[in-house]
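Whiteboard transcription, Tuesday session. T.W. wrote the C-alpha cells on the left side:
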C-alpha cells in the first residue's frame, strides 16, 4: 500500500468525528439539555405551576396592544399566550420544554383557541425581523434578547416584558444576574415609545413591567 492509502481510513474517521461534533455543537434545541430536563421535570405535574391566569399587567393592558401576530418567549405552560389567543391574537409560543408546551396546547384547547408552539433553546435563538405585532417575555431574563425583540417587532408593534428586579433580592434567594436593575427596561427601550411602565414592590416580591412601542417607519 502507498502511504496515502494507509492514512485514508483514519482520515475518513477524523472527518466523520468533526462533522458529528459540529452537528451537536450547533443543534438549537439540545444546546442546553440540562435546562430542558430541569423544566420538563418541573412541568411534569398535573397542576399548572404558575396557574392558568395571565399576569395582571398583561390582563389589565391587553386593550392597548395591536391585534395581529404575537410571540410568547419562554411560554412555559401558556397562561399568557393563551390569554392573548382568547383575545383574537395569532399566537406562537417558544420554550425549551416540550412538556410545558404540551400543557400550553391543552390550556388553549380548554379555551377553544389554537396556538402554535415550537421547542427552542432561547440562548441560541434568532428572532426573525419585522415579524410580530406583539412580543411577550414574562419572568424570563435574557438580556441579549432585548435588541432582537426590538428588531423582531413590526413598526408600531409592542413589547410586553415583566420579571423580577433587584428589590426582589431582599425577599428571596435569587440570582442577582437574573434580576432587572433599576430602570433597566426603560433604558433598554429608550428609543421606543413607553406606553406603560411600573416598578412594583409590595414588601414580599418586586418586579418591573413595561409595554414599549416600536416607532412607525
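and on the right, the sequence the group agreed on:
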Amino acid at each position: 500500500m502507498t502511504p496515502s492509502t494507509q492514512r485514508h481510513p483514519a482520515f475518513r474517521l477524523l472527518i466523520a468525528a468533526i462533522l458529528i461534533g459540529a452537528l451537536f455543537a450547533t443543534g438549537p434545541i439540545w444546546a442546553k439539555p440540562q435546562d430542558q430536563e430541569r423544566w420538563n421535570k418541573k412541568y411534569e405535574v398535573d397542576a399548572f405551576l404558575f396557574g392558568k391566569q395571565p399576569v395582571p399587567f398583561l390582563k389589565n393592558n391587553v386593550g392597548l396592544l395591536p391585534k395581529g401576530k404575537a410571540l410568547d418567549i419562554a411560554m412555559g405552560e401558556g397562561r399568557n399566550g393563551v390569554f392573548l389567543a382568547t383575545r383574537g391574537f395569532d399566537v406562537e409560543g417558544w420554550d425549551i420544554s416540550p412538556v410545558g408546551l404540551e400543557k400550553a396546547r391543552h390550556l388553549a384547547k380548554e379555551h377553544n383557541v389554537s396556538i402554535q408552539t415550537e421547542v427552542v433553546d432561547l440562548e441560541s435563538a434568532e428572532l426573525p425581523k419585522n415579524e410580530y405585532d406583539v412580543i411577550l417575555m414574562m419572568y424570563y431574563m435574557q438580556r441579549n434578547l432585548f435588541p432582537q425583540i426590538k428588531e423582531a417587532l413590526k413598526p408600531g408593534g409592542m413589547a410586553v416584558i415583566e420579571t423580577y428586579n433587584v428589590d426582589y433580592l431582599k425577599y428571596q434567594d435569587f440570582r442577582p444576574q437574573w434580576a432587572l436593575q433599576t430602570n433597566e427596561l426603560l433604558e433598554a427601550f429608550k428609543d421606543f415609545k413607553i406606553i406603560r411602565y411600573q416598578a412594583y414592590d409590595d414588601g414580599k416580591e418586586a418586579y418591573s413591567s413595561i409595554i414599549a412601542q416600536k416607532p412607525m417607519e
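Someone added at the bottom: The CA atoms of residues 16 and 50 lie 45 Å apart.
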